[in-house]
Amino acid sequence: MTLGRTPLLLLAALAAAAAGPSFAEDGADLVLQHGVFYPVQPPGRVEGSLAVKGGRIVYLGPDAGAERFRGPRTRVVDLAGRTVTPGLIDAHSHLLGLGRALAQVDLTAAPTYEEVVRRVREAAAKVAPGTWVYGRGWDQNLWPGQQFPSHEPLSAAVPGHPVWLTRVDGHAALVNAKAMQILGIDAATKDPDGGRFLRDASGRPSGVLVDNAMDVIGRLPGATLEENERWLRDAARHCLAVGLTTVTDMGVDGGGIEAYHALRQAGELPLRAAVFLTDSQPLLDEWFRRGPEIDPEARLVIRGVKMYADGALGSRGAALLEPYSDDPGNVGLLVTPGAHMEDVSRRALAAGFQVGIHAIGDRGSLVALDAMEKALGGPRPEARFRLEHSQVVRVQDLERMARLGIIASMQPTHATSDMPWADERLGEGRLERAYAWRKVLADGGRLALGSDFPVESADPRLGLYAAVTRQDLEGNPPGGWLPGERLTREEALRGFTLDAAWSLFLENEVGSLEVGKRADLVVFARDIMSVPEAEIPRADIDMTVVDGRIVHERGRTP
Ligand SMILES: [Zn+2]
Questions:
Q1: Looking at the predicted structure, is the pLDDT value of residue 17 above 80?
Q2: DSSP assignment string, 452-517
Q3: pTM (two decimals)
Q4: Is the distance from CB of 244 to CB of 520 less than 8 angstroms?
Q5: Among 448, 338, 337, which Cα is nearest to 390's?
Q6: Cα 99 to averaged position of ligand 1 atoms, centre (Å)
Q7: Exposed end of the chain (fewer CB within 10 Å): N or C?
């Protein structure tokens, strides 16, 4: 658009907008009154009202001061003393993965095979014939007789949809006749190395696939656009209900991005999503050529690249400098060459992208930080490079992260999930610098908190609770695991709001309740900043607001 062709009316409107919104005429869109607000920036607590106009915060202060923002069309919500925080931000999550997980039929604790079939039939009835139905969690050890199932009852109940049901341990799957037909599994199919197709007396496959026989799933086409869109919609709704207003999607391929674009264009992305590209050559070539995608409304932001330095601690894949304490010959696995991580980091930086490198062991962290440091060439906090998980990091590397401005992207619930066995893997000396949130802060580093959902629950109340207690939900261990690393509630809240926003280039838009920022916020039934710690996970989320719109209300579907 050139200025010469701009209609006068539009110029007048632009001039009016530049002068600031006028409250005298129609007032604010939304006023939340009689509340307790934790703005995060500035730190502290404010009793009173918050007003929103045009999706942004225009007032936060005493109730009396909000009077002038009330107009005939203002929606006024009386909070009656309830608590408001900025909308919570998950700095490391997988939105698409959550949708996929939610879409699977939950078969855990099914007491009979008949119950498994019933749950699958019910789920299949909700989707078009021909659509794959996935489920997980069945365990024949819970059923009478404890025999592996045969596909016939399942195939009879669900003839029109291919079905794939993963066993509770992930090492076997049950498929129906339709699925076997599509996958080309029949009596002539040979067992692969390291895998087996269970068979009946006459040699016909029973539908149970063990270990490497499950590799046939690789023959399936990837998710369709429609499936991806549905998963994103369902996952977004799930997140809003637990108070998340901004999430990440760490490592998305071209098909996933297509679904994000489709939802965004249809105006159906109800929260903010920051998408990190997966480390694939053609995808990165394309995006480094065209540059980051920065949404003026900050709904969909694509300006990150996700890489992997090593594996995970649970499976002893995290790369350590010294062998695992419970596996003396094993130092874990480096999964990406340092030179590749350095090259991608350089190209990302030049193209305006940030990188987030998964690093769990101290050797993985060292290699990832070396690669990032070479690409950065020195301190560059504005680049927002991130070390994902940062679970075991040498003391000098934590200092290096603070010096270079590399963000520690950490997940409090990983610590409390891993604590039952982490000491066996790591041993005393190393444990002291594991999941070391407080050391990050003490070094002057930046801590962005998240959950890694669907690996952990998406519920940020669980993350806040784990961050301040380092205990499981039963309150164990007493006093907390490595309690010196516990965060204060203010630090934990900042990690799930403003510093998470910083880690996504969104700190000027969201992350605090400040005048001028987008009105993303959460109304809690109880004051999560002062209730006993054990009650943090149970503080009801009464309302979630994005851009000044109430997008979730407890007990109501808006
Ligand atoms: Zn992850």
A1: no
A2: -TTSS-S-HHHHHHHHHH---TT--STT-SSGGGPPPHHHHHHHTTHHHHHTTT-TTTSSS--TTS
A3: 0.87
A4: no
A5: 448
A6: 14
A7: N
